[in-house]
Amino acid sequence: MNLKGLAHALGLSQTTVSRALNGYPEVAEPTRRKVVEAAARLGYRANDSARRLATGRVGAVGFVLPADGGLTQVPHFSEFIGGLGGRLIEHEIDIVVTPALAKDELAVYRRLASSKRVDAVILSAPTLKDPRIEILNSMKMPFVLHGRTELDVPHAWFDIDNEGAFRRATSHLLDLGHRRIALGNGGKGQTFCVHRERGYRAAMAERNIPVDERLVAYSDLTDEMGFSFAEQVFSLDDPPTAVLTSSIPMGLGVFRALRARGLQLGRDVSMIAHDDAFPYLNAHKMVPTMTVTRSPMRDAGSRIGELIIEILNGRDPATIHEMWPVPLVLGESTGPAPR
Questions:
Q1: For 56, what's the count of Cα atoms within 13 Å in the CB-facing half-sphere?
Q2: Which end of the chain has fewer CB atoms surrounding its CB within 10 Å, N or C?
Q3: φ/ψ bin of 326: left (φ > 0), alpha (ψ from -120 to 50), beta (otherwise)
Q4: Could you give the CA distance from residue 184 to residue 319 in angstroms, rounded to a whole number?
């Protein structure tokens, strides 16, 4: 079954069928569904070479993975790629994953853009003044940024409200009577970490409560670093009564350190963690259940895949500025401050 035969079977033009299969927005959704269902039923499969000649695309999206990022990148990467791939496969678009050492990262992006091996690129883990933005813009390579920057350069971005999430989480702990609240954050300088710290500090400032800088730390979002962070802050003469962490694994490390000290989570110390919704770390199956700011990484990957398709189909990247709210989901790990 070729394109001509599929169009004949449907009583539609080849142009309409082609546009429906490739996700063009001007094709009505009922028509698109009708075409996709018929293609599956009749065994239609696109001729990749012909399609690429017609569209000028290679049918792939690029993603650069830090080769020296260690295992801390793996859970986030696998969930994100799972969501992204699930969306792109509907349009028969491949993902080209390219490893890069931190010192060579900019050169890798230049090579991706100039090689014509991908139609677009996804950027992750941005900094506030991320140099990759200007490089890809100057080379006219389409991309979607997962996160935000402060650069005044038109580009597409998708983000979650990290600042609002941590402001709300800190306010919840303050409402429970906590005043000494520790923050275990991710790597210093990354935008999401900057925004989470802003939210934390803003909530403290609203109540005129000074931040003890000894209670704020930056590290990899791992169990090991969570344990080390807890050991540090709970060794102080005036330890915190509550903790915020930027990941569930980091929160588990804090939990281990508390148990080692004979402290009970939710009674002696409260904790809120950010939950990227890894399938093997269910916050509401933990004992005690974890209070979290929840935003599934897989959902982010899926949405960014949709935005990439929209850009490839002609949407102006400068019109894509999308930020999702982050709910606070209560569990048993938070309670009133001990007297």
A1: 3
A2: C
A3: beta
A4: 34
